From TrEMBL:
Matches recorded under SMART domains: DEXDc, HELICc
Species of the source: Thiothrix eikelboomii
Listed Pfam families: Helicase_C, SNF2-rel_dom
Occurrences of domain Helicase ATP-binding (ranges): 57-225
InterPro entries membership: DEXDc_RapA (IPR057342), Helicase_ATP-bd (IPR014001), Helicase_C-like (IPR001650), P-loop_NTPase (IPR027417), SNF2-like_sf (IPR038718), SNF2/RAD54-like_C (IPR049730), SNF2_N (IPR000330)
Protein known as: Helicase conserved C-terminal domain-containing protein
Length: 960
């Protein structure tokens, strides 16, 4: 989004106060102006569909939340970020974000970089550390936005439930869609834990995969009073092929669920393509013999080296390291041998963090893992078994060390040459990001490339970044950016930023581990090399997404490697490339397949099981074919069509709305930025030098209270150069200036407005030139539905008895002016007071009508919920009626007296049950109506308005 620059104008104190209230007031939740402060603060190129989604999530104050279901790649994180930033600005700061473990750092980085929001990642280690340090309830924190994984939130359910959250966001929420099933422990636990939260946002590209019950499940996570119970939902919507049924369901969910498609936003979100390059290689005989040796070891039914209860998890990691490089698996084998030695030396001191140093994403993978493993049966002679296995592991390690060069490493050199030629053809910078899952493989690749033409621009990036080169890069970077906003003060964060900047400015190849590369943006790089190919499609999408993202100007080349001698490796690649469509096209993985796998860790487990159990090529092919068939069964054409009918709007309707949002956002953003800069240039006229391009050099502070909070130097809105400080509404300097302008007492004064100096034609004010009159500005605060909105009422009349209509009084206050007389006694104007009263009454009617529409929407929801429950009760009686008829038929044709008597007795029992159910039906229907009426009474109480009015200033005006 382009930001317009304006000449900075000096304001009168009255205009400064008017601007300050305009910039900080609480606007109506359904208006674009409610998001304006957040738009000014954010460092994003905002797209109109994101504004639309944020307004949808924010609109109805009675709603308990929404599902934002845009297709993959449209920036749902930004949509939620807008709402989070707005809540934060409103001082509603108990905010929880629950995400898959591998997305935690990405969320942290996005909220910090784009919205300037402070975040805290909570996980078991730092949670316990905080509690030991005296923080009894780490979740109950208003200084930071809390980010945690699904597993962690479930494990700390009691502590999560104890917090009165202002907002909870759940990403990849399709993981919870089967909450109605008793076996989905995480989903059911989180639903119960978060039932008291009044504002939730669920983010998922696949709210509906293979059953309408999934939609029921997701909506119930937001609000249990949208639909009745599960059986009544099945009864009503089980026949989803009926158009009237779908229309009814669409009407019911439309206030809670919003979906935008890629094709609808193409003119606003230009994406480049992905170009795949496959580099095939064949390992040497020594490499194949070694791999077979380790593979057979991993397939043994009993292994002493693996911790109890972690057999599957550790095996998964070892299979990955084996595929990475001999250097990676060699280190892991040594770790396992040392662990066995420790078992013999002192079992009580056994370290449970096996392979943490070998595989950086171990913590994250373990956190997503459900412990389903069987504990290994212990042999009779444990010590002898341990010694034997330890000897084997050390032998494996020796064999691995003897293999110095890896065939895949040589293939990398060939692939780099091909890929850089492709970048040259595309006109892209010659930069490559190489991903590996192992730090030891990272070191091997560093040594491999160091003496080649890529060596001079080589840089490593991992979870610790503690190597000498990284420290030197950080030191130089910190000196260069000293005194600017780029230096955060956190050495970890600043080292990451320094390495990315080095790669952008000087580097040619970055070798990154999985854990290290989470959350960084590399849209200046257009070559992604998967040296190790993860089995988790979500991880691959995340890797490629470091480069193939909004802001990327070139097509992105994606390089993968396949071992021709390994049937399982070939099948994994085929599955990821063809079924998941990860490596080519405009957007990468489709919604259908990403939704079908649910948790990526579960999918990895299924592939690991094939490696673990299948030896022969035909067994491997058969197992992968079954896996593909299983995926295909979860993606039905009928359900895809159902999703379209339920969740998607006509393109024309969407285009019209997005076009309006694009224009309105641009206008509002420009106006707010202009007001802020005009207010700032007035307040800092003697303290700063303004350049007229929404930037200034701060040379001194207007008060000592800002000392330590506000550095001197260059400021920009928005920031265009890395060396400038970002100026925004939330900056401490801006907050101080706004507070000062709002607090000042303004006596009556005479102001002369210079129409010619404004520079833009205001047609409706041209007829007023050469006249004068009285103007009054008031602040109207209206509280209802547990929220406050503020409006500026400005009215003006001229001395000839004419009222300035519509927004002309507001326009008048934007024109350059000077105070010509103060203090001054102004005559009372009944005409002015009458106009103010009319404006106030019209505004209160508008607010009341809007709130009534929210009330009606909630009443409709409660009516639907009550009707659903009654339908469920009536269905029970209908089922008994059907059973009675069947018993009568059976009794009529019974061949013996005993059988007839048996069925007559059964009929009487059912009739007694029916009579009891009918009485129960009436009682429970009354209970439901009573509950509904109590809820509506609650809503009516919340609708009551509290109105406060404050005169800001009264002036005599003259327009020349």
């Amino acid at each position: 989004m382009m930001t317009q620059s304006f000449p900075n104008l000096l304001l009168t104190p009255h205009q400064a106060q008017y601007y300050a209230w305009q910039l900080t007031r609480h606007a109506a939740s359904n208006s674009l102006e409610s998001l304006a402060p957040t738009l000014v603060n954010a460092q994003i190129d905002l797209n109109p569909h994101q504004v639309e989604a944020a307004l949808f999530a924010y609109e109805n104050p009675l709603s308990k939340g929404v599902i934002l279901a845009d297709e993959v790649g449209l920036g749902k994180t930004i949509e939620a970020g807008l709402v989070i930033a707005q809540r934060w600005a409103e001082r509603k700061r108990r905010i929880l974000i629950i995400v898959p473990a591998n997305l935690r750092k990405q969320w942290h980085q996005e909220l910090q970089d784009k919205f300037g929001l402070p975040c805290l990642l909570l996980e078991s280690k730092n949670y316990n550390t905080l509690q030991k340090a005296g923080t009894r309830y780490p979740f109950d924190n208003t200084d930071y936005i809390i980010i945690g994984s699904y597993q962690f939130a479930k494990s700390k359910a009691k502590d999560v439930k104890a917090v009165d959250w202002d907002l909870v966001v759940m990403d990849e929420a399709h993981r919870l869609r089967n909450v109605y099933k008793t076996g989905n422990v995480i989903a059911r636990t989180l639903k119960e834990t978060l039932a008291h939260v009044h504002s939730k946002i669920l983010l998922t590209a696949t709210p509906l995969q293979n059953s309408l019950l999934e939609l029921y499940g997701l909506v119930s996570l937001i609000d249990d009073r949208v639909f009745g119970d599960l059986e009544s939902f099945r009864t009503q919507f089980g026949q989803a092929n009926r158009e009237t049924t779908l229309q009814n369901l669409r009407h019911r969910i439309s206030p809670f669920c919003k979906r935008t498609l890629r094709r609808q936003v193409q003119q606003y979100v230009p994406y480049t393509k992905r170009i795949p390059i496959l580099e095939e290689f064949t390992p040497t005989q020594d490499e194949r013999d070694f791999s077979n040796l380790v593979a057979e070891y991993l397939r043994r039914p009993k292994l002493q080296a693996l911790p109890d209860g972690q057999r599957q998890l550790i095996s998964l990691v070892l299979w990955k390291l084996l595929a990475s490089s001999t250097h990676a698996i060699a280190g892991a084998l040594e770790t396992m041998a040392n662990r066995l030695q420790a078992t013999l030396d002192d079992p009580d001191k056994l370290d449970s963090t096996l392979l943490d140093d070998d595989y950086e994403a171990m913590d994250e993978t373990a956190e997503e893992w459900d412990d389903e493993d069987q504990i290994n049966d212990k042999p009779l002679n444990v010590r002898e078994a341990i010694q034997q296995e330890m000897g084997e592991l050390r032998l494996f390690k020796e064999k691995a060390d003897q293999i110095r060069d890896n065939s895949k490493g040589q293939a990398l050199l060939l692939a780099l040459a091909k890929a850089f030629k492709e970048l040259e053809r595309l006109g892209a910078a010659k930069k490559a990001i190489i991903f590996t899952e192992s730090k030891r493989t990272q070191s091997y690749l560093q040594n491999l490339l160091r003496d080649t033409s890529y060596g001079a621009g080589l840089v490593l990036f991992n979870g610790t970044n503690s190597d000498t080169q990284a420290q030197q890069i950080h030191k130089a970077w910190a000196q260069r950016h000293a005194g600017t906003d780029k230096v955060s003060g956190s050495k970890t964060a600043d080292t990451r930023a320094a390495l990315v900047d080095f790669f952008r400015e000087q580097g040619s190849v970055m070798i990154a581990t999985e854990a290290g590369a989470e959350g960084i943006n590399l849209q200046f790089c257009s070559l992604v090399i998967n040296y190790d190919l993860p089995w988790n499609p979500q991880r691959i999408e995340q890797r490629i997404g470091r480069c193939h993202r909004y802001g990327q100007k070139h097509d992105v080349v994606v390089v993968n490697f396949v071992d021709l001698s390994n049937e399982a490796d070939k099948r994994v690649y085929e599955l990821l490339a063809q079924k998941f469509q990860l490596f080519e096209g405009v957007f990468g993985a489709s919604d259908e397949v990403l939704g079908a796998i649910g948790s990526g860790i579960d999918f990895e487990r299924r592939i690991a099981r094939i490696y673990q159990t299948c030896r022969k090529p035909e067994e491997i092919r058969s197992s992968f074919a079954a896996l593909q068939q299983e995926l295909a069964g979860e993606i039905t054409e009928a359900m895809t069509q159902t999703r379209q009918l339920l969740l998607e709007n006509f393109d024309e309707e969407v285009h019209a709305k997005l076009k309006k949002h694009a224009a309105d956002s641009e206008t509002i953003l420009s106006r707010y930025e202009r007001m802020l800069m005009d207010l700032t240039s007035t307040a800092l006229a003697t303290h700063a030098e303004f350049s007229g391009d929404n930037g200034f050099n701060l040379q001194s502070l207007p008060t000592s209270t800002l000392q330590g909070q506000v550095p001197l130097g260059r400021y920009e809105l928005p920031r265009r150069s890395g060396e400038a400080h970002l100026y925004r509404l939330g900056h401490p300097l801006a907050e101080w200036l706004l507070a000062q302008a709002k607090q000042i007492h303004l006596p009556p004064a005479r102001l002369r407005f210079d129409y010619a100096a404004y520079g833009t034609r205001l047609a409706t004010l041209e007829n007023v030139r050469g006249t004068s009159g009285i103007l009054q500005a008031r602040l109207l605060s209206v509280s209802a539905l547990a929220q406050e909105e503020q409006h500026l009422l400005v009215a003006a009349v001229d001395h000839n008895g004419n009222v300035l209509a519509l927004d002309d009084p507001d326009k008048l206050l934007r024109i350059p002016a000077m105070v010509t007389a103060t203090p001054i006694d102004l005559p009372d104007s009944p005409l002015l007071q009458h106009d103010l009263a009319q404006r106030k009454n019209a505004l209160l009617r508008e607010i009341n009508d809007r709130n009534l529409s929210y009330f009606d929407q909630e009443v409709q929801k409660l009516d639907g919920w009550a009707d659903d429950l009654k339908l469920g009760l009536e269905q029970e009686i209908k089922d008994i009626d059907r059973e009675i008829k069947e018993v009568r038929r059976t009794a009529a044709i019974a061949p013996t007296l005993d059988e007839k008597l048996h069925w007559q007795k059964r009929q009487r029992e059912l009739e007694t049950k029916r009579s009891k159910s009918r009485r129960e039906l009436f009682r429970r229907q009354d209970d439901i109506d009573e509950q509904r009426n109590e809820l509506i009474t609650e809503l009516e109480d919340r609708l009551q308005q509290r109105v406060e009015e404050q005169i800001l200033f009264t002036i005599e005006w003259e327009l020349v």
